Structure formats: structure tokens, C-alpha cells
Structure to design on (392 residues):
């Protein structure tokens, strides 16, 4: 496997107080892939990209740590399961997995990715819903939808989304209804009245034509949803089939809960996780459309380190205490010496205190080079992987 280009690395000056030279010598090349080594299609393989999600880690990273620290038949825990990357990789590797997340949408997504389906019935049901929604959307009214929905969607797009919701909720049983909710959410994300270049952080609905930085021409905001529902139905069925061909029978449990006090239904042998970091992302808000459209419980007040609370002293101190609560709660449910792998860009150097007070011994701090070539967050940067062991 090719290493990252040294010229790219040398453009960076300092991370978390370390000099460029020190950092460069610490890079773990097995964890640092160039675009050629690991193209996007591999990073987004099968169910990993059933729905966009900001703040995901790449599946290949999880795979490396499963191979290094877990044996088939073990169980891995991710207290911040997010879109379910650890759980999906654990299943194909052949270990049981338990994931917890405070965001109901993230739990829905993780569980849709890891559920085993009767594939023929699933596909038939989803295609039937699409057909019926298409033929009923013209008679669906939007007056009773929330103000947020009415401002972010054209009348036509909203009718189509509501028609799909109505037909799917009435005709599908779990787990097909859950899959339909993910398709609906993904279509709702694409059908918002926003610019093509600002799907991650749109602020205001855009109702007029605009100059598009992505396509270098004048574009119009989207005014329909059906084409997305159709496209994402095909893509979802295809991705679920791909995963079904390689999945194992190991159990996967997804818990909608607070990692500070959750009781685990399986006994984990260790942890692989990427925690939130203070003041960077609002995990509920990034999928606002899903909370508006689907019947999901909103627990944003229990999110750790949300962007909305900023990066002031108080917010950072609260984050440290919350992380200690999470790892302390996990610790009591882990065997002594269990591996705890934490992927985090600890720019504020908060983890020495968090680890010490959670009774986790740092065995290795690996630095990985991250390629980010898409979207507005493009650029090169580094990330740490803290390899710890639970004290006895
Ligand atoms: C960096 S993301 C994890 C991403 C994940 N590794 C993936 O690949 O999709 C952090 C996650 O922590 C979750 N989170 C924040 N506060 C939490 C809490 N109190 N309990 C459990 N999860 C929480 C967020 O909802 C978010 O999904």
C-alpha cells in the first residue's frame, strides 16, 4: 500500500503542540491512506453510504483495529455509534456489536444498516410504496405540515414527501418501514430549497435562481422530491443486497440512549469509537428534516459537546466531565485490560485528563493523516487514535 505524499504532510505545521517533524515521525502509515490507495467508492461501500452523515470515520480504520485487538466471537462496543460504522464493520469481521447513540435518527440509520431482511419482500414493498406515492401526491395537502417544512420545501416537493410517508407508514411493517424512513429522509435532504454547494450547512431556504459554485453556472433550487425517492430506493435496495451477501450472523444491538448511563445488553470485550468534540457539530440539527418528517424522539439536550454550546471554557469543561461519565460507565461493563480505541482530533489536548479520570491507560497515541477531498470541508489534516487499556 502506498503511503501519503510527504509534500502534503510537510505543509502542516503543528498539531496539539507537536512540531511538524515530531508529528511526521509519528504518522502510522497503516492508518493513513492516499486517495489512490483508498478511493471514495471504497470508503462509501455498501450500506456505509445509505445516508449522508457528517462526522463519520472511515470503515477501513475500524477494520484495522478490529484485526489488531479483536477475535471472531468477541463483542465490540461503540458508545457513540453515529451512523453505525463500527457496527457494520464488526458484523462483517465476525464479532458481535453493541452501539449507543443519543440521536434517534442515527440509531434508525445504524439499525437499518445492520438489520437482516427478507430481500425480495423488502424490494417489492418499497417499489409498491413508490408507485402509490407517485399516484397520490397530487391530492396530498400540506397545510398541516410544520412551518419549517413549508418554508424549506416547494409545495410539490412537500406533497411528494408527505404522500410517500403516508403510503409507507400504512403499508409497510417493520423493518421495511424503517428502511423507507431512511429513504424518505435522504430524499428530504436532497429536496430542500438550498444551493447545490451547501447541503451540509444551509442557513436559509433559497427560493430564487443563484450562481452555483459547484456547477459554475446559474442553478435553481430543487422543486420536487419524487426523483430522489426513486433514485434512493434503487440505491438503498442495491446497497442492502451487497451487504447481505457479506454479513455474518453475529448479533448487533443498537440502543437509543445516553452513553453516560446506558446498561449494555451484551458483554463487550472492548471499544472502538469516535466521540463528538466540543463545539463542532450539532448531531440532531444536521438531520433536522428527519426530525420534522418522521416520528423521532428529540434528545438534543443530552448531546455531548454540541456546536450550539460553543467552545468556551464552561462548554469545554462540561465536555470533559461528560466524557469521563461515558468512559467511566463503559469501564464498569468491560473486563480488565480491555482495549479502548478512541479516534479523535484532540486539538485542545483534553484527553490526557479524560483518560486518567476514566481509569484508562494510554498505551499508544497514533497519528493518522486524513484526506478530505470533497465538499467545503476539503483539506488535509491529522487525527489521533488513542489506544488505551481499561485499568483493573
Ligand atoms: C463523531 S460522531 C460518531 C460517528 C461514528 N463513528 C460514525 O462513523 O458514524 C459522535 C456521535 O456521538 C453522539 N452523541 C453525542 N452525545 C451523546 C450521548 N450523550 N450519548 C450517546 N451518544 C451521543 C452523536 O449523536 C454522534 O452521533
Amino acid at each position: 500500500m502506498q503511503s501519503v505524499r510527504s509534500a502534503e504532510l510537510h505543509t502542516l505545521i503543528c498539531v496539539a503542540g507537536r512540531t511538524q517533524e515530531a508529528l511526521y515521525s509519528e504518522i502510522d502509515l497503516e492508518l493513513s491512506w492516499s486517495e489512490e490507495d483508498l478511493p471514495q467508492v471504497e470508503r462509501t461501500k455498501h450500506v456505509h453510504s445509505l445516508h449522508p452523515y457528517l462526522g463519520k470515520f472511515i470503515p477501513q480504520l475500524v477494520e484495522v483495529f478490529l484485526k489488531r485487538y479483536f477475535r471472531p466471537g468477541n463483542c465490540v462496543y461503540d458508545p457513540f455509534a453515529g451512523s453505525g460504522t463500527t457496527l457494520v464493520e464488526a458484523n462483517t469481521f465476525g464479532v458481535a456489536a453493541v452501539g449507543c447513540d443519543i440521536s434517534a435518527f442515527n440509531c434508525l440509520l445504524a439499525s437499518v444498516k445492520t438489520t437482516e431482511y427478507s430481500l425480495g419482500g423488502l424490494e417489492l414493498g418499497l417499489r409498491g410504496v413508490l408507485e402509490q406515492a407517485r399516484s397520490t401526491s397530487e391530492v396530498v395537502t400540506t397545510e398541516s405540515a410544520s412551518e419549517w417544512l413549508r418554508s424549506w420545501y416547494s409545495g410539490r416537493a412537500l406533497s411528494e414527501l408527505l404522500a410517500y410517508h403516508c403510503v409507507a407508514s400504512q403499508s409497510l411493517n417493520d423493518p421495511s418501514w424503517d428502511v423507507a424512513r431512511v429513504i424518505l429522509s435522504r430524499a428530504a435532504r436532497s429536496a430542500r430549497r438550498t444551493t447545490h454547494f451547501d447541503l451540509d450547512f444551509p442557513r436559509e431556504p433559497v427560493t430564487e435562481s443563484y450562481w452555483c459554485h459547484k456547477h459554475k453556472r446559474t442553478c435553481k433550487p430543487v422543486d420536487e422530491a419524487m426523483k430522489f425517492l426513486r433514485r434512493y430506493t434503487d440505491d438503498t435496495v442495491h446497497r442492502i443486497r451487497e451487504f447481505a451477501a457479506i454479513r455474518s450472523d453475529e448479533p448487533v444491538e443498537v440502543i437509543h440512549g445516553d452513553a453516560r448511563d446506558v446498561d449494555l445488553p451484551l458483554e463487550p470485550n472492548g471499544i472502538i469509537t469516535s466521540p463528538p468534540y466540543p463545539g463542532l457539530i450539532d448531531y440532531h440539527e444536521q438531520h433536522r428534516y428527519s426530525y420534522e418528517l418522521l416520528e423521532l424522539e428529540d434528545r438534543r439536550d443530552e448531546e455531548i459537546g454540541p456546536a450550539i454550546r460553543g467552545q468556551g471554557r464552561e462548554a469545554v469543561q462540561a465536555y470533559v466531565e461528560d466524557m469521563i461519565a461515558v468512559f467511566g460507565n463503559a469501564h464498569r461493563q468491560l473486563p480488565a485490560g480491555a482495549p479502548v480505541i478512541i479516534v479523535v482530533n484532540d486539538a485542545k489536548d483534553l484527553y490526557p485528563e479524560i483518560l486518567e479520570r476514566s481509569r484508562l491507560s494510554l498505551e499508544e497515541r497514533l497519528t493518522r493523516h486524513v484526506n478530505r477531498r470533497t465538499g467545503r470541508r476539503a483539506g488535509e489534516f491529522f487525527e489521533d487514535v488513542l489506544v488505551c487499556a481499561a485499568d483493573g
Summary: Confidence is low (pLDDT under 50) at residues 1-16, 374-378. Residues 53, 55-57, 80, 82-83, 85, 100-103, 106, 258-260, 274-276, 283, 302-304 surround S-adenosylmethionine (CB under 6 Å). The longest strand covers residues 360-372.
